[in-house]
Design brief:
By secondary structure, this protein is an alpha/beta fold. The chain folds into three domains: 133 residues, 2-Layer Sandwich (Chitobiase, domain 2); 160 residues, Glycosidases (TIM Barrel); 242 residues, N-acetyl-b-d-glucoasminidase (Four Helix Bundle (Hemerythrin (Met), subunit A)), CATH 1.20.120.670. The protein is 49% helix and 9% strand. Bound molecules: 2-acetamido-2-deoxy-beta-D-glucopyranose (5 copies). InterPro entries: Hex-like_dom2 (IPR029018), NAGLU (IPR007781), NAGLU_C (IPR024732), NAGLU_N (IPR024240), NAGLU_tim-barrel (IPR024733).
């Protein structure tokens, strides 16, 4: 420890001299072709159309110019001005202009466009921008998506939903998004020409809700096979998505070949060198995927075929490809030369299809298995390709950054990312402090090779505030100085009206539940959503009273803001969070009464606990974004026949509950949604309470193993196979129910 510190200090003193004249992070000319190829006029028209979709007729109050020569201090920028009563937006790219328009919406017109709720009630006369404002970004790339986001959040989307989301990306200033749809259709062609049969790839691809993990070689076949109509739909979507991304001036990242192949490789190419990788608790036949040996000449052959086929299908490329060979899976050897060869093979595969390829790699493996990825192993993989030909995502930058333990990824360019979310869980959580400061520290790091910032959530549609903050930080010259002011601005734009109670509510939340100091890999471990057990402790980095007091303020604001949809969304969310706190307190009572063995008191406590879950389902039912019915019906709507319909429904249900045939990662992607709370979480608790009641009555001990088997057989598995229809539209009035619950729960103990 001591030695390290001293060496570090010496390094700093010595290196400061060398790096002193460098004022900005290192630039990488190797990346100069990773930029938009679309002309300014097309980007401008694409932004104009987006403005029309966003504000309708009022689009004529805005005038947009995209001008690639507009580069104040050599950086991407936007400028806002008022000329003849019109708001004039100028941007280096379509994305910069769209982000400038969004900046105007938030900070002048007091509007907010976010994932599923938006508030774009423009003032009759638009407030002028005077004097003109120019904002530049030091972040050459603003990356977006985790490889899992497509499965946890986008999987059932149709084009209208995608179109809105692409608008959101542009408004958010994102210029480097993943574009992963439809890749299985391309793989099918490649496998066909290599001699594989439909049966071979049917066993290899997973079902729609699990594609992310099949692509990474974590699992194979689970939830499949993919019907032909799936490929057609996804291919058609990908054409539209790519065209729109490119026309906005974004640089879509396409998939590359990471080495995972169908099992039939062993019979079809008996000489091929393969190994198998283990992921989590998955077993045959869903594990383990075959990994082609990097030294096998087939590796770059397949990699090249895939890239070529994709370029042909999607009319060109922006030359950047993602591939993750060892995501959450230990390589078969820790010998650095093996790792170097593996990396070189992945890159050779890309080059075989595109001589200008750049490899984008998630740096998650370095976080998830630090024991394996010691400096020698990390360096071997990172330096397996020439400097500047790989871009690494420092995926969990806000909690466990890797750049500062690897001399800035041993010289490879990296993007500092906020991961924030796992499994699309809904609990309130954030690390405001490190999200605000982290990317600036990374840029200032000695010899920093940082080339941008990013968002890498596993799932979206939760904790909107953290994403708004990060998107703004990417365009700021320094961190937000006074977070309370930012919170007040956030509330004002989100609801369109200045309201002191709403501001206070957000200020409390940002200082408390959103300011988790340490950050966690699993932040939503509420007793509500986890499989019932005795004496479970819940992680808490904040005082539940903070949530209740914020809840008071939101309820107070509801008289003024009750008609605003984004406010209703937030009122549901804070009520949900408050009830989650209550559930934990009630759970503790339940455990206490169980321990004392007083059956009557236990029954009373059980009644209170179950009532809280019922109340939670009721408030969630009042807003469309908290409905299980949306998730399932959207899944079914992509089906073209009954068989597909039940396959998609099963995929949708299994992902958010058992996650695997036997609950391999049960509850990982838990969601506090109406329908799921009532028919899954509550039902599990009903069984637990019944079991505990019997134990008390018969004077027996609770058998956890037996309960796990029972809950799996009686509740969890049947739920994944069921086909009950859940409402697609909300029921009940948010305001009235939130007020009623607030009355009831707040009066009880305070
Ligand atoms: C393909 O891309 C080129 C420019 O790279 C463009 O001119 C052409 O219109 C595109 N074709 C299609 C079908 O999108
Ligand atoms: C790296 O940076 C993070 C965030 O600033 C910090 O918590 C951590 O201690 C640093 N690690 C090292 C080895 O300096
Ligand atoms: C918040 O709402 C309460 C109850 O409606 C009201 O009495 C109070 O004045 C409000 N607080 C502020 C700061 O506006
Ligand atoms: C608990 O249940 C399991 C599974 O039913 C059983 O094998 C085990 O013997 C039980 N343990 C006790 C202590 O009864
Ligand atoms: C729902 O499941 C039941 C029982 O398994 C079955 O009889 C029924 O046909 C299913 N309904 C639909 C619409 O699939």
């Amino acid at each position: 420890m001591m030695t390290c510190t001293v060496l570090r200090c010496c390094g700093v003193i010595f290196l400061t001299h060398l790096f002193f004249s460098r004022t900005v992070a290192k630039e990488f000319p190797t990346l100069d072709h990773i930029r938009t190829k679309v002309d300014d006029g097309t980007q401008q028209r694409t932004v104009e159309d987006m403005i029309f979709r966003t504000v309708g007729d009022r689009f004529s109050d805005f005038s947009v110019t995209v001008d690639s020569s507009f580069m104040p201090s050599g950086k991407e920028a936007f400028q806002l001005d008022t000329v003849d009563g019109k708001i004039v937006v100028r941007g280096t790219t379509g994305v910069a202009a769209a982000h400038g328009f969004n900046h105007y919406l938030k900070y002048y017109a007091r509007c907010q466009v976010s994932w599923t709720v938006q508030q774009v009630d423009l003032p009759g006369v638009l407030p002028p921008v005077s004097p003109a404002v120019t904002i530049v970004t030091s972040n050459r790339y603003r990356y977006y998506q985790n490889v899992c986001t497509v499965s946890y959040s986008f999987v059932w989307w149709d084009w209208p939903r995608w179109e809105r989301h692409l608008d959101w990306m542009a408004l958010s200033g994102i210029n480097l998004p993943l574009a992963f749809n439809g890749q299985e259709a391309i793989w099918q062609r490649v496998y066909l020409s290599l001699g594989f049969t439909q049966k071979d790839w049917d066993e290899h691809f997973s079902g729609p809700a699990f594609l992310a993990w099949a692509r990474m070689g974590n699992i194979r076949g689970w939830g499949g096979p993919l019907p032909p109509s799936w490929h057609q739909t996804q291919l058609a979507l990908q054409h539209r998505i790519l065209a729109r991304m490119r026309n906005f001036g974004m640089i879509p990242v396409l998939p590359g070949f990471a080495g995972h192949v169908p099992a039939a490789i062993t019979s079809l190419y008996p000489k091929a060198a393969v190994s198998r990788l283990q992921w989590g608790r998955f077993k045959d036949p869903y594990c383990c995927t075959y990994l082609l040996d990097p030294q096998d000449p087939l590796f770059s052959h397949i990699g090249g075929m895939f890239i070529s086929e994709m370029i042909k299908e999607f009319n060109g490329t922006n030359h950047i490809y993602n591939a993750d060979t060892f995501n959450e899976m230990r390589p078969k050897s820790s010998d650095p030369s093996y790792l170097t060869k593996s990396g070189a093979a992945v890159f050779a595969g890309m080059l075989a299809g595109d001589p200008q390829a750049i490899w984008l790699m998630q740096g998650w493996l370095f976080v998830s298995d630090r024991d394996f990825w010691q400096p020698a192993q990390t360096k071997a993989l990172l330096q397996s390709v020439p400097q500047g030909k790989m871009v690494v995502l420092d995926l969990f930058g806000e909690v466990e950054p890797v750049y500062n333990t690897t001399d800035s990824f041993y010289g490879q360019p990296f993007i500092w990312c906020m991961l924030h979310n796992f499994g699309g869980n809904l609990g309130m959580y954030g690390t405001v402090h490190t999200v605000n400061q982290g990317s600036f520290l990374a840029r200032k790091y000695l010899g920093s090779t940082m080339v941008g910032t990013g968002l890498t959530p596993e799932g979206i549609d939760q904790n909107y505030v953290m994403y708004e903050l990060m998107n703004e930080v990417a365009w700021m010259p320094q961190p937000v100085q006074i977070m309370d002011n930012w919170a007040a601005d956030y509330a004002w734009s989100r609801y369109g009206v200045k309201n002191a109670n709403a501001s206070l509510g957000w200020q409390i939340l940002l200082r408390s539940v959103y300011d988790c100091e340490k950050g966690f890999k699993d932040h939503c471990d509420s007793v509500v959503v986890k499989r019932p057990q005795l004496h479970k402790t819940q992680r808490s980095w904040y005082k539940p009273e903070d949530v209740f007091s914020a809840w008071d303020h939101f309820v107070s604001a509801s008289n003024d803001l009750g008609l605003v949809d984004s406010f209703r969304y937030d009122l549901v969310d804070i009520t949900r969070q408050a009830l989650q706190e209550w559930a934990y307190m009630n759970y503790q009572d339940l455990m206490e009464t169980y321990n004392t063995g007083d059956l009557n008191k236990f029954r009373d406590a059980a009644g209170v606990f179950q009532q809280t879950l019922t109340d939670m389902d009721r408030i969630l039912a009042t807003h469309q974004n908290f409905l299980l019915g949306r998730w399932i019906e959207d899944a079914k709507s992509l089906a073209t026949n009954d068989q597909e319909r039940s396959l998609y429904e099963f995929n949708a249900r299994n992902q958010v509950t058992l996650w695997g045939p036997n609950g391999e990662i049960v509850d990982y992607a838990n969601k506090q949604w109406s329908g799921l709370v009532a028919d899954y979480y509550s039902e599990r608790w009903a069984l637990m309470i019944k079991t505990l009641t019997t134990a008390l009555m018969e004077g027996k001990k609770f058998n956890h193993t037996a309960f796990q088997q029972d809950v799996f057989q009686q509740v969890e598995k049947p739920f994944t196979l069921a086909n009950k229809t859940y409402p697609y539209y909300p029921t009940g009035d948010t305001l009235q129910i939130a007020k009623e619950l607030h009355q009831r729960y707040r009066r009880r103990t305070w």
